[in-house]
Fold each of these.
Amino acid sequence: MFVEVVKSKIHRVSVTEANLNYIGSITIDEDLMEAANIIAGEKVHITNNNNGERIETYVIKGERGSGQVCLNGAAARKFQPGDVVIIMAYGYMDFEEAKTFKPRLVFPDTATNRLVK
């Protein structure tokens, strides 16, 4: 049996931009993606701590070191610059493996979206 478990989480980053006229997706700073083990095109869930919205979309790689977290397309109606969000990616794995699996959790500085060293 396989189960779906959280594999990656970027906890409490600030939305830097909401671009209604873009095709769709979320653009994330490549440093944050790498730290959380998230790849371009991967499906993610995003929760908005400011208004309770929760959406699914796919990731586009943003400029490394920029702190960029941009909601694109229709999501721009539910997420605004300054909103604090949590970005989660999930994976399927064997039930026994899932019991001991440790997800990659990233806790950046919420004000700058930069990795805390």
Note: The chain has one domain: 2-104.
Amino acid sequence: MRILYDIFFLLFSIFYLPYFLIKRKYHRDFLQRFGIFGKDTFSSIAATRPVWLHAVSVGEMKTAETLIKDMRRMLPAKRFVISNVTKTGHDIAVRLAGGEDIVIYFPIDLSFVVRGLVRAVNPSLFIAIETEIWPNLLTELYNRNIPAVLMNGRISPRSFRNYRLIKPVMRGILAKVRLFCMRTEADAERIRRLGAAAGSIKVTGNMKFDSVLIRDEGGEARAPVEERGKWLPEPSRLIVAGSTHRGEDAKILESYRALKKDFSDLRLLIAPRHIERVGEIEALAGRLGFKPVRISEVEKRCASAKSNPADYGDSPVFILDSMGRLKSFYKLATIVFMGGSLIPHGGQNFIEPAAYAKPVITGSYVHNFKDMSELFAKSGAIEIVKDKNGLVSSLRKLLSSEERCKEMGERAKKVVFDNIGSTERNISLIREYL
């Protein structure tokens, strides 16, 4: 079976490399995806038996942030090897890593590649964030008696149906995982039905709630752009469309245009999920009659004290053109629309704006966050719309009632803080491995 699996990945790699070259995704450390590392990459860390934490991309890295910080406080001498697949996730990991930690790209799951990597890293524990099931890696860890833990585990109904087609294979793979920390009872039941031992499964909640804990920021210097009066007229209301995907921006812009007729104080900020789409959104906003303004330009003007709300006109469309700044704008928002949900993408995580007591609207394509959206909807803490018309209607109702906005935002915040604590529960379960 492993031979067939290796053949599959070798064939996959043949097509994988040209694709990345064509898409210009090649970068300095790209060869790590094929198991090629510098000979001294792990020489200083292997003897310390680090924790190897794997988080695919941005969302998983944000989920892992609190976990790493709490583990580091508990065991300050412990070092980490953090692996990612995407460049954006890798960049976050680099910022999060301590001076003696190592950040790498996760290689293709070929037996001879992962065998060498596990030997080189020599971890005391492997933690995969969310549903990361790599047969060859798990086999190698198991053979070397290194505990593997699946944390913040999720098995969607669709994934469950697919995995069931290879249930005999899945049973053997899952037997090599020491502990499954699953988000919900439904996730736990699905992983059990796929063959995981019941005694290895724990329901610990969703770590994404912990990743947005709002700490006292009073001592932190505020960025000039966070001072509304420098670029947003007072009074004004701001809609933040967060993590949008191609196919949604036109609907959001057209909704904004429809609402501007009745709410002249309204402003819009679009934050694309992929930063390379900024120019595309600029062009679209211009074609629809708006004045596109990049936040980087606003920041420059604010920093030089040359910014005046009047400079941006009556109908500007602000576009966030840098990573890691969206949180600041959620704090300034009147209403948040969460992207990836008006198209069949599956939605994006809306816990962060909810934690700031912001009313959140999302489209109906939220299958990647099904349990979360149902939890919020049940509490009246989110509005789910089917299309552009529904978005306009929902925004209009909220803009027309300050009380409705506040009430919905407070419900959202309560849901977040009622569900905090998963990270602590997970750490308590892995203490014996640390």
Note: Residues 224-418 form a domain with the Rossmann fold fold (CATH 3.40.50.2000).
